Amino acid sequence: MINDISQGFILDSYKNNEKPYTHTDNYAEINVWPEFLDIKNHDLDFIYIWAYHISIKNLSQDDWQLISRHFRIIDEKGRVMEVDGEGVVGEQPVIKSQQVFQYSSGVHLKTASGIMSGYYKMHNLQTNEFMHFTLPSFSLHLPSDKPLQN
Q1: Which contiguous run of DSSP H or E holds residue 133?
Q2: What is the rounded CA–CA span in Å between residue 45 and residue 50?
Q3: Among candidates 73, 81, 82, 66, which has minimal Cα distance to 120?
Q4: What is the DSSP letter of 9?
Q5: pTM of structure
Q6: H helices then E strands: how many in the chain?
Q7: Measuring CA to CA, which residue among 55, 61, 69, 60 is closest to residue 27?
Q8: How do residues 126-141 score in pLDDT, each as one tens digit?
């Protein structure tokens, strides 16, 4: 996890090499760089493993705290997995106006592709309002496959 305005491995390593999946509105710009990692054989099934690297830039004049997340993951057979939890990677970061919060996490599927979407529940520390920041839908696919674009 990196909480840095301009530097960090996500910006350095991924921004220059691949176009991210992006969602931008009046409050935030959220970029996602999925990365296929490995295939493991487990109990006669395969498990496909991805990392995803996320950058959240606060575009508003207020400070926001990331309270929780809701992710929806659909594999190529249509199986749906819903993931809800407090914060991300064990934190509930405060993202100050015009700053960036970055983190990496992972997901595994029993199929070679899928799609992931969701949102973050955010708390405005100045107005005390709550809002959802949308995570762009992004493709989980093997490097040899063509990605789904948003």
Answers
A1: strand 130-140
A2: 17
A3: 66
A4: H
A5: 0.86
A6: 1, 9
A7: 60
A8: 999 999 999 999 999 9
Residue type, 69: R
3-class SS of residue 87:
coil
Which residues make Cβ contacts (< 8 Å) with residue 37, sequence separation at least 6? 49, 50, 51, 106
By C-alpha distance, which of 19, 29, 13, 4 is closest to 133?
Answer: 29
- Structure confidence by residue, pLDDT tens digits, 97-150: 999 999 999 999 999 999 999 999 999 999 999 999 999 999 999 988 765 554
Domains and their CATH numbers in the chain: 9-136 (2.60.40.1470)
The whole-angstrom distance between residue 135's C-alpha and the CA centroid of its chain comes to: 6
**33 and 138 Cβ atoms separated by less than 8 Å:** no
Residue 33's Cβ-count burial label (10 Å; 0-12, 13-18, 19+) is buried
How many residues are present in the chain?
150
